[in-house]
Amino acid sequence: MATFQVPGALGVAFAFQDADHFSLTPTVGSATTLVVARRIYLHVPPSLANAGRGQLLWVGDLARIPARDGPRPALPLHATRLTPAERAGWQFASPVHDVDTVLAGQPVRLTVVRDERLATAQWLVDRTLRAAMEMSLCGDGISRLLETWDPRLTGPGHAVVAASGGIRLQAAPAALPARIALPPDLRVEDYRVARRA
Fold first, then answer.
1. Residue 72 CA: distances (Å) to CA of 82, 130, 151
2. Mean pLDDT, residues 94-111 taken together
3. Between the CA of residue 191 and those of 39, 58, 59, 179, what are the distances in Å?
4. What are the two backbone dihedrals, phi and then psi, of residue 125, each rounded to the nearest 5 degrees?
5. CB atoms closer than 10 angstroms to residue 165
6. Model confidence over 69-97: pLDDT tens digits?
7. DSSP 115
């Protein structure tokens, strides 16, 4: 489990059990994006708009896990510009590096660390969730975070732990407190929308 600071959204907790079970939860406000048995759900917390009850909306299924990309030119790594105070609490065994790249047509500086488990989790989420879902449903904070998980880095095993603009891992990843499952007290509502070809 890892929590990221995302400006404007306060934070996003990323829990990863395996390729078929993970969640992305804003620390304040909107719905959790919850994946259980490859199905994508939005877990909407109780609110006045919902007459004080929560909702569990099935919005689709994950895309098929693609084959890993073949060899491609490595993005050049250089010494990080983050200060020790900005990296406090990470406690990674590997050194931290920066990468200057372009995402969605905009220049961005990503900070990465060699961490196979977190990198693989980020790669899988990018390749299966982002490929299958209208990301605006997840909320702005989650969408902005996932945009930084560049598969050119995560595929080869570099986890993205920060990005220019203020996205930053808050602490080193920790073990999951419990297995990822559907809330037992909510009825699943089918909100899937057929995609047009």
1. 27, 22, 11
2. 93
3. 12, 5, 5, 25
4. -65, -45
5. 14
6. 666 667 899 999 998 888 888 888 889 99
7. -
Q: What confidence score (pLDDT) does residue 197 get?
A: 46
Which strands form 32-36's sheet, in the order they lie side by side?
A: 78-79, 96-103, 106-114, 158-163, 167-169, 2-5, 12-18, 21-26, 32-36, 39-44, 55-61, 188-190
Residue environment code for 15-27, b if the CB has 16+ CB neighbours within 10 A, otherwise e: bbbebebbbbbbe
CA angle 79, 145, 95 (to 5 degrees): 25
SS3 36: strand
Question: What's the start-to-end Cα distance of the chain, in Å?
Answer: 36
* Amino acid in the structure at residue 33: T
User: What Cα–Cα distance (Å) separates residue 80 from each residue in 4, 6, 26, 156?
Assistant: 18, 19, 27, 19
Residue 9 has what pLDDT?
A: 62
Q: Which amino acid type is present at position 155?
A: G
**Are the C-beta atoms of residues 159 and 113 closer than 8 Å to each other?**
yes
Which tokens in the block code for residue 70? 């073949």
Q: Specify the pLDDT at position 72.
A: 65
